[in-house]
Every structure is written in C-alpha cells, then in structure tokens.
Amino acid sequence: MSLAHDHNDSGHSGPVIDTSNGFDIIECAQCGFRHASPLPTAEELEATYSEEYYSEEKPDYLAHAAEDAEWAQLAYDDRLNKIEQLLGNPPSKNKGRLLDIGSGPGFFLERAATTGWDASGIEPSQQASSFAKGRGLKVTNDFFNAETAADLGTFDAVVMTNMLEHVPAPIELVELAFAALRPGGVICITVPNDYNGFQTSLRAKGTKPWWLAAPHHLNYFSFDTLEALITRTGGLLRGRLSSFPMEMFALLGDDYIANPELGRGLHNKRKAFDQALDPAIRESLYASLATSGLGREAIVFAQKNS
Questions:
Q1: Is there a contact between 109 and 139 (Cβ–Cβ < 8 Å)?
Q2: 8 has a pLDDT exceeding 70
Q3: What is the pLDDT of residue 156?
Q4: From its phi and psi, is residue 106 left (phi > 0), alpha (psi between -120 and 50) or beta?
Q5: Burial (CB count <10 Å: 0-12, 13-18, 19+), residue 35
Q6: Domain-by-domain residue ranges, the chain?
Q7: pLDDT tens track for 172-182
Q8: DSSP character string of 274-304
Q9: CA-closest candidate to residue 158, choices 126, 119, 106, 132
C-alpha cells in the first residue's frame, strides 16, 4: 500500500507506506529497508530497553518461554547446526566463542553453552540479564556498541535473534557485529519477516497490519532487504531458513490476530507440528519457504570474508 506523500527526516527519505502509533513507516532510500520515522533518541531507547520492555511490553514472556522451552530448542539446534557446518563442524567440545547480541533471558545462550560453545551474551534489559545470570550464564547488562564490543573481544560466531527490528541504527550494529567476528566467522540474524506474501494476502482481504508495532519495532525487513544490509556491510551470504507461517492459520479462517487466546492454542499446534517432523524434513521445509520469501521469520546466515 502506498500513501500520498514522501517523508524526509534527518537523512531518511522515501514514500510513506503505512503509519503505526503516530509514526510513519517509510521505504527508506538511504537505508534500503522499511523503518519508522522519526526514530527515537538514544535516551528514549535506553529507557525503553533498560527498564520497561520485559515488564511492560512482554509481561508473560518468561512464563511462555518456559512452556515453549522444548520446542524452542529445535530452532536453536537448527541454527547452531548451520553455524557449525559453515565453520567446518568443530569438535563437540570447545566449538569456539559465540556472542548472542540481545540475549534476553538467555535460553539460546544456555543451549549453545550446553552443546560445547564458550557462549556469552549482551543484553540491555536488567530484568532479562539478571534472569540469565541467575541460570549461571555469562551476560553483560549493556547495549552492544563500539565500547562494549571492544571489551567483549573476538568471536567465531555472532547471533542476533529478533532484535535488529528494535534498534534505530541497524546498519551500524551489523557492521559492529562483523567487526567482532574473526576472519571466516559466521553470523546468524533472525528478524520478523514482515510484509511477506501471507501478510499482504490477509491485508488484501481487509485484515489490519498487526505486525506494525512502532516504536518497539522500528525496522521492517524481508529476506531480500536483510540480505542487502548484510552484503552492504561486507558479509558473504551462506543460507536462509524460516519458521512456521502463523499467518496461514488466519488465511484458513482462524482469526488469532483478533483473539489472543485462540492464538496461544494455534501456537501450540505449530509446536506440535515442528516436534513431529524429522529434523531433516523440518530444515528442508523451512529452507524451501525461505527461498520463496515466506515464513514468519527471516533467518539469514553469512560469513566474514577471510
């Protein structure tokens, strides 16, 4: 959908394609992906993610994460397996150093550590980082920036899961993440796959764009725009994966978007589906969806030029 005017704000310009909570969503010519405008200040961002996000925006997150732990481990293992393949399948012990940027309560970090990684996280939320530290995980309670990156050192793998959509300067963040990799190191970035074909099909039927969530979601990526950002920062693309397309339920008539209770039940169905599949079939399915630009998440693997 295209609205009637262009937007120009502090070097970000492009047609306005949507609005969300008073923010324009623009096709930014400078950035190469859709994002909200105006972008929040550093002070506003720090207040949101240091104190408010898990307590106000995700109050049920930890409870639901505990319920989903066994299922979530499937996705963690799929991503770790791909990272390890790209690194040449290091031994089961001492696989190398892994950094999880925006590690949240540390569930992925914990899985990486138990499978042989020297795993560290960095997380701005005090609540989430305290939870992770309470589980014995190595987590720095801070934002990932030039100063903290220098303190953390160099890694064989860097992971960013559902966090790049939250930051006002994702290009600079990905550049810093690549700088933290050793030559030949691997990065795995996961973001919501927004404006995908299933979503736009629902919108054509009159469903509101529920995936718009400014100011908490500032950036709206597709596989193509995420890959363009990665190559812009010097990464070598090595593969795509996706995840179960929840929007398919809505296309079949189950309007979980308007009914969160129904949504939790449908989420349990997708968990059962993923857990019933042979791992190789699950990986093949989600790689095929990703090739078509479909699936709820855009998961992209890339390597630092050696």
A1: yes
A2: no
A3: 98
A4: left
A5: buried
A6: 1-39, 42-304
A7: 999 999 999 99
A8: HHHS-HHHHHHHHHHHHHTT-SSEEEEEEEE
A9: 119
Q: Which structure tokens are listed for 207?
A: 């469903």
Which residues is 116 bridged to in the sheet? Answer: none
Instruction: Give the H/E segment covering residue 262.
Output: helix 260-276
Q: What span, in angstroms and rounded, lies between the C-alpha atoms of 229 and 175? A: 10
Q: In 10 A of CB 64, how many CB atoms? A: 12
The 10 Å CB-count burial string (b at 16+, else e) for 182-200 is eeebbbbbbbbbbbbebbe
- The average pLDDT across 97-114 equals 96
**Block residue for tokens 């008539």:** 253
Stated pTM of the model? 0.92
Residues with Cβ within 8 Å of 278's Cβ and at least 6 positions away in sequence, in order, are: none
Nearest Cα to Cα of residue 270 among 300, 242, 299, 293: 242
Instruction: Measure the CA–CA gap between 273 and 290, rounded to whole angstroms.
Output: 18
CATH architecture of 42-304: 3-Layer(aba) Sandwich (3.40)
* Predicted local confidence at residue 2, as pLDDT: 38
Q: Which amino acid is at 26?
A: I
